[in-house]
UniProtKB/TrEMBL annotation:
It holds the Pfam family RmlD_sub_bind. InterPro entries: dTDP_dehydrorham_reduct, NAD(P)-bd_dom_sf, RmlD-like-bd. Residues 14-186 form the RmlD-like substrate binding domain. This is RmlD-like substrate binding domain-containing protein.
């Protein structure tokens, strides 16, 4: 199989991106524009092999990025009642794209999820012991997470795939309803559990660099360390809205208002940090990329 070795590819970069209407897919396009990288969005449906082959033939990309997938609207509870639709996109579609890319000798950068683990005896909450790339997923509470764990296991067999485990994504756009901060500021009550999270403003440019370096395999795609819901809301209050208040509830109370349980975990980001030493810890990244740019000054 003629995949490029690590290092830059010979011909000029051209990215084929799936997920035009999604949050990450949209941000990726803007990033490519800002960096002067040639790109096109795929028009094919992931589960339709012929349409993917047609996209690749017409675009002739150097790399393919997949930010398409079903997370459910307004949240993953949707997947519990739309299981076939969830499988069609998250499993059949992703595997079809990986398979077509392999056939064409292309690396696929796939934005996956780290919500396939939950704290356990070997990785207790607050211990600083995170799940590593090679650990077997242990969270099957939601159908969404179940499909993501299945497809990750199968994609391990594709040597052309770079799997990025994103968690609780956050960006500097605090108006975006998909933004984890925006979500929790709008909830009536929140749980308060430390978690690994992904600051998109810092990490999406890194994913482009990973494509350039032709990196493959599984990567915990989060900032190092954990941050709790309350810590984020305290930062929000201190930087954005001094009058902001919130209420907490516990997992038992939360379970009464959601259909599927949610994943809480710490992912070990050492592999990513070794490849990109400049990567900031989650709290530093939150302040630099999210809260400082949005800070409300006295005169505002």
């Amino acid at each position: 199989m003629g995949f490029p070795a690590n290092g830059s590819s010979e011909k000029p970069l051209k990215f084929l991106i799936y997920g035009r209407t999604g949050w990450i897919g949209g941000l990726l396009g803007k990033l490519c524009e800002a960096k002067g990288i040639d790109f096109e969005y795929g028009s094919g449906r992931l589960e339709n092999r012929i349409s993917l082959e047609s996209d690749i033939a017409s675009v002739n990309p150097t790399h393919v990025f997949n930010a398409a997938g079903v997370t459910g609207r307004p949240n993953v509870d949707w997947c519990e009642s739309h299981k076939v639709e969830t499988i069609r996109t998250n499993v059949v579609g992703t595997l079809t794209l990986a398979d077509v890319c392999r056939e064409k000798g292309l690396i696929l950068i796939n934005y996956a999820t780290g919500c396939i683990f939950e704290y356990d005896e070997a990785h207790p909450n607050g211990s600083g012991i995170g799940f590593k790339e090679e650990d077997t997923p242990n969270f099957t509470g939601s159908f969404y997470s179940k499909t993501k764990a299945m497809v990750e296991e199968l994609l391990k067999n594709y040597e052309n795939v770079c799997t990025l485990r994103v968690r609780m994504p956050i960006s500097s756009d605090l108006t975006n309803p998909r933004n984890f901060i925006t979500k929790i500021t709008r909830y009536h009550k929140v749980v308060n559990i430390p978690n690994s999270m992904t600051i998109l403003d810092e990490l999406l440019p890194i994913s482009i660099e990973m494509g350039k370096r032709n990196l493959t395999g599984i990567w915990n795609f989060t900032n190092p360390g954990v941050v709790s819901h309350n810590e984020i809301l305290e930062m929000y209050r201190d930087h954005i809205d001094p009058s902001f208040t919130w209420k907490n509830f516990n997992l038992e109370e939360q379970a009464k208002v959601i259909i599927a349980p949610r994943s809480n975990n710490e992912l070990d980001a050492n592999k990513l940090k070794t490849e990109f030493p400049e990567l900031l810890s989650i709290k530093e990244s939150l302040i630099k990329y999210v809260f400082e740019p949005n800070r409300k000054t006295g005169g505002a």
